[in-house]
Amino acid sequence: MAFARLDEFVQTSIGQAVPGALVFVCNQPATVTPPGPLTALFGSSSGGSIANPLVADGNGHVFAYVTPGIYTIIITHPLLGTLVYTDQSFQLGGGTAVNTAFQVPGGAINGTNTIFSLTQTPNPGASLQVFVNGLLQRQGIGLDYTLAGNVITFSFAPTTGDNIQTYFFF
Q1: Do 38 and 24 form a contact (C-beta atoms < 8 A)?
Q2: Nearest to 154 by CA among 138, 167, 166
Q3: Sign of the CA dihedral 144, 99, 53, 64?
Q4: Contacts of 86 (CB under 8 A, 6+ apart)
Q5: Regarding beta strands 115-117 and 129-132, do their DSSP bridges make them parallel or antiparallel, or are they unpaired?
Q6: Of 6, 48, 103, 110, which has the maximum CB count within 10 A?
Q7: pLDDT tens digit string along 28-64?
Q8: How far apart are CA 12 and CA 38, in angstroms?
C-alpha cells in the first residue's frame, strides 16, 4: 500500500517553534472535543503504526505517513489554544519534498491594522489558507485579503479578539 507523507511545522506568529504541541489527524467529519475519529498513522512509507496524536519535537515539527485522502488536523497547545484545519489533502507526491506550516500571523489585531506577516513565504502563494474566527477567507484583489511575499493585507481590519490562523506550503 502507498502512503502520503504528512510533514508539518507548528509555529507562533513570530515563527517560534511550539514543541509539545499535539497534532491530531482525524477522519472527516471530525469532532474537536474530543478530537476524532482518529486516523491510522504510520512511521514510514512501508508502514508501522504510530500514535495519534503526534507530538511536535523541539523544532515544532511532526511527520507521519497516512493513507492518501482528506483529513481534519486539530492542533492543541497552551500557547495556541485549539486550531482546527478541515479539508486537508494528503496525496501521493511526485518525489518533491513540500513543507507546510500552521501559523498565527504576526501583527496587531486591534480594529485598525490590516497588515500581517508570516515567517515563511507561501510557495505557491495560492496554497495559503487564511481563517478568521474559523471562516476561510478569499484571496485576491477586491476579496478578503491579498498576499505579497510573506505579507497578508486584509481588505478589512480584524477586530480585537479575532482569531487569525493560516496554513500554507513553503
Answers
A1: yes
A2: 138
A3: positive
A4: 28, 30, 72
A5: unpaired
A6: 103
A7: 889 998 899 999 999 887 888 999 999 999 888 898 8
A8: 25
pLDDT tens digits along 77-105: 998 888 888 878 787 654 444 567 788 89
CA distance 28 to 8: 19
> What separation, in Å, do the N-terminal and C-terminal C-alpha atoms of the chain show?
28
- Cell readout for 21 is 504541541
**Per-domain boundaries in the chain:** 4-95, 105-169
Alpha carbon distance 113, 118 (integer Å): 15
Interior angle at CA 21, CA 17 and CA 23, nearest 5: 120
User: What is the pLDDT, as a whole number, of residue 12?
Assistant: 77
Reported as a pLDDT band with limits 50, 70 and 90, residue 127 is confident
Which residue, among 67, 54, 66, has the nearest Cα to 10 in the 3D structure?
A: 54
